[in-house]
Amino acid sequence: MATIIKTEHLSKVYLGKIKAVSDLNISIEEGEIYGLLGPNGAGKTTTINMLTTRISPTSGTAIVAGYDINKQSLEVRKSIGVVPQDLTTDEDLTGRENLLMVSQFYDVPRATADERITHLLKLVDMEDAADRYVRGYSGGMRKRLELIVGLVNDPKILFLDEPTLGLDVQTRTQMWNYVRDIQKKLDVTIILTSHYLEEIDALSDRVSIIDHGKVLVTGSPSELKSSLQGDIVTITLKNQKEADTMKTMNGAIEIKDAGPNTVRIKVANSDKSLPDIINFIGKKKLSTIKLTVQKPSLDEVFLEYTGKDIRQEEPGDARKMMMNLRRVRK
Ligand SMILES: Nc1ncnc2c1ncn2[C@@H]1O[C@H](COP(=O)(O)OP(=O)(O)O)[C@@H](O)[C@H]1O
Ligand SMILES: [Mg+2]
């Protein structure tokens, strides 16, 4: 396999002080779906914007499809397609008109454009909606259109910045199928950013977990998961005092707080350790509200490398936390 993107000490500092991306060194192989996984503010969009030549690096560079982003931005732009985080299609045009407009921008000859657009619309099941105004599209349809807008210039590389942000779970899984299909049928390399673990797990051949502009670890999702030895037992108890008692148990690899009245116990093998845990609970007369056992998932990988739970970043959870706080105060 050939390397299609290589970043060399790629860095971006905003306003002389905000280190959005620091010394990024990654290689992406042709034909891969490569994920950049990180919480809000990790530097994902800044990385994409540099690789797509929308902003210039403060230092370092990257070779994209054989071209240097600092010196050959025009060539880079011709080789890539970009689907930015924010919606870009025009609501007052039809889907097809949007696609044609972008193809004109890239100087694609009209006959080629017509043919390509028909093919792309078919790939994402949008033939029927193609001649309707985008204004009337559902969120999922709009995202599907955005996805193929990034493909009208027949790029070697497609950049997708948070391609399913704001979609409901069902629509999101549909998008995954389209992304996979596009990679296979059009033989493009895809760079995808997301703060949804499931999305990265479902789609990426390899992933870099980034936080505060730095790569913490790179590997295939399954490599990362199996590198974490041990199972996780999560226990919610009646109150924080009981949770603190639980933390005094012996024989675990690690015991950490994991939310209100909740502890996260890492053990080598949950089948062997569960009886000990249950014994301890009985001996100390603790009341278990909830107990779950988990083999390592990408959640654990994320927690291991960033020291935080990516789901704490979800607005839904923030709201829940506020509600819990309010309840406690009353
Ligand atoms: N134009 C900008 N000016 C100043 N700071 C910025 C700008 N764009 C992003 N940042 C900051 O850089 C960091 C990385 O942002 P971003 O790349 O958007 O992260 P992500 O896409 O992972 O959420 C954040 O701290 C963000 O506030
Ligand atoms: Mg972003």
Structure description:
Strand 8, helix 6 and strand 9 form a beta-alpha-beta unit. Helix 3 (95-105) crosses helix 4 and helix 5 packs parallel to helix 6. With 330 residues, the protein is of the alpha/beta class. 39% of the residues lie in helices and 26% in strands. It folds into 2 domains: 3-224, 3-Layer(aba) Sandwich (Rossmann fold); 226-329, YebC, transcriptional regulation domain (Alpha-Beta Plaits, 2-Layer Sandwich). Strands 7-8-9-4-10-11 form a 6-stranded mixed sheet, with helices on both faces. Strands 1, 2, 3, 5 and 6 form a 5-stranded antiparallel sheet that branches. The relative contact order is 0.12. Residues 44-45, 85, 161-162 line the site of magnesium ion.
Task: Furnish the topology, listing elements before pairings.
Blueprint: E1 3-14, E2 18-24, E3 27-29, E4 33-37, H1 44-51, E5 59-64, E6 67-68, H2 73-79, E7 80-83, H3 95-105, H4 110-123, H5 139-149, E8 157-161, H6 169-186, E9 189-194, H7 197-203, E10 206-211, E11 214-219, H8 221-227, E12 231-237, H9 240-246, E13 254-257, E14 262-267, H10 270-283, E15 288-294, H11 298-306, H12 315-329
Parallel strand pairs: 4-9, 4-10, 7-8, 8-9
Antiparallel strand pairs: 1-2, 1-3, 1-5, 5-6, 10-11, 12-14, 12-15, 13-14
Helix pairs in contact: 3-4, 5-6
